[in-house]
Amino acid sequence: MSRFFLCLTLAVLGLLPLSPAFSASSATGASPASNPLLNQQGMMQRVDDASYAKYREIVATFDAAIRAQQGDVALALARCQFMRNYAWAEDLQWAEKAQSNLKVCLQNLKEKFTDDPEVSVSLMENVYGKDAVAQGEALLPKARKWPAEYRARLHAALSNAYQGTQDKRNAGVQAVEAAELSPDTPVLLTAVRHLATTGEKTEARRLLMDAPTPKFVWQATSRINTALDVLPGPTARDLLLRMQTAGLKIDPYTSARAFLQAGDAASAQRTLAETKPDAPESAQNRALRLSVALAARDGKAAAAAIQSSLEYDKGNRWPLAQSYAVLMSIDPAAGMRFAFAGLMLTLLSVGLCIVLFPGLLMFPVHYVGTVRARKGRPTPPLFERIGLRHAWYGLAVLCLTTWALHAFVVSQSTQTHSGTAPVMDTLLPKLALTHFATLGIVVLLLSRTMWRLGRRQWTSSGEWKARWFIWPAALLAVSTLAAWYLAHHTTMHNTELQAWNESVVKGAMQLGGTGLALLLVAVVVPLVEEFVFRGCLLGGLTRHMSFIAANLWQAVIFACVHFDAKHFPFLVMFGLTTGWLAKKTNGLAVPIAMHMLNNAIFVLVVMSR
């Protein structure tokens, strides 16, 4: 029966006469030599030969039409395009012949229609890599007089050429030019990404929103995903609503991400409810479902999402532990499941490690102090009433409080935008409030140690010398000039990647203006940090080791705690300087004043951007 249908198919295609096909199909016991239908390779060759014959027939038709209409550019281009469709086909044995024909065709185009814009662009689109870049750049001066349609195609082709050479900047520049000339250009998303990453997010949004609605769902989804990646706020949601109005059905997960990024957790949750309950989900989509539930403050849904992730995502323990911390702050009852015991243990273990880690740092210091004391070479402490246990306690309180509050509060906001660009306008005020709360709890827990330090150590004592302040003043001057230069000669490419301290400043400014930002960053932060690092840490270390070693040790820890690799050298230098001032002035007043001045300058620089 299968042989019968094979013969019938070949007969319909004209590759085999009908009557011999049936007679052959009815024969039995025939060998491949006597029956060509049993030779599959031969049949494939006949199909290939027939397709090549038809290809040559159509090319001949093109040639006849071109001879009749010598100057018809459209016909000449169509002939080359027809050849191009087969020149790079991998399943045709005669593809190399089509490549040779295409090469001759393009050469004829170049010779006969040198100044035609459409021909020039088409010729460039058949070249790749550096050759395409050189050819496209050479066409740019001439293209200024071309119609907008062909200029847009040239810039798009040049953008693709630059992409092929890994030159993303020039690819983006050319894509923007193409998008300005033709809003539905194929390189629209390249243009949007370039504008967004160079700080021109408003212009990137305009290009996306002004582009005509695409015809296909995959194109619409690509636009929405691009907005999710590089444009914070409601842009992705606005695009989604526009596509839905045009009748395009976007998948629920992309829709939920768009709603979530816009801060509409309720709509995101309703959208995810449209998915089939038993449908398989990827790890990314399970994470999205969890983020939506946390954003909607739906404890039961969040608990179900965490449990599902525990079952399927085995290597995802720490992110799930952070999500569990957020769940416990939203609905503790929903988090009290035996299945979550491992996550709770993970959080407790991390907290315990944070508390014990400063003690591990103090262990070698205590050993050094013990050895020096036995050798009769004890070191004079910087502050009489501060010891190594206060150094451990102060650092442990600061680190644990900072981690705990941000794990339970800030993570709730950052995780609600899992897989998307965070909505910083929403996150920054919460970040500033959390920072205020962190410092308040630290002060409360360290109040007894602050009282123990004594008034004279807080206000400093002894006679000061003017030369002591030359280096601190120079350090502040250099840092101020560097900050001003960076603020006015560089661009923030990604708001979500800005420094932690800058985020705190902007959040405080959103809550209460410049005054609140100065109060938080330039008053409270210096008081707490100087007491912890120069009061407790440096004071405790100097009881067991030389001041030089102790000052270097506390300065490195001070820089590490800030988690700012770009400014690490400056933070170490700043810690060394303030520690040196604490020793020279026998107190914390001058280090606090220097820290306040430095942070006030930082706030003003952030405001000037």
Would you mind describing this structure in some detail?
The protein has about 600 residues and is mainly α. The protein is built from 29 helices and no strands. The longest helix is centred in the C-terminal third of the chain and has 42 residues, at about 500-540. The protein is elongated, with a radius of gyration of 36 Å.
- As residue ranges, the low-confidence spans are 18-28, 416-423, 492-497
Beta strands, count: 0
How many individual helices? 29
What order do the SSEs take from the amino end to the carboxyl end, as H and E? HHHHHHHHHHHHHHHHHHHHHHHHHHHHH
* Computed CA radius of gyration, to the nearest angstrom: 36 Å
Outline? elongated
Main sheet overview: none
Helix-strand layout with pairing:
Blueprint: H1 2-12, H2 18-26, H3 40-68, H4 73-87, H5 95-112, H6 117-125, H7 129-143, H8 148-164, H9 168-181, H10 188-197, H11 201-210, H12 217-230, H13 235-245, H14 252-261, H15 265-272, H16 283-295, H17 299-312, H18 317-330, H19 332-335, H20 341-374, H21 388-415, H22 424-445, H23 447-453, H24 455-459, H25 470-489, H26 500-541, H27 547-561, H28 568-585, H29 589-608
Helix pairs in contact: 1-2, 3-4, 4-5, 6-7, 6-8, 7-8, 8-9, 9-10, 10-11, 10-12, 12-13, 12-14, 13-14, 14-15, 14-16, 15-16, 16-17, 17-18, 18-20, 18-21, 20-21, 21-22, 21-26, 22-26, 25-28, 25-29, 26-27, 26-28, 26-29, 27-28, 28-29
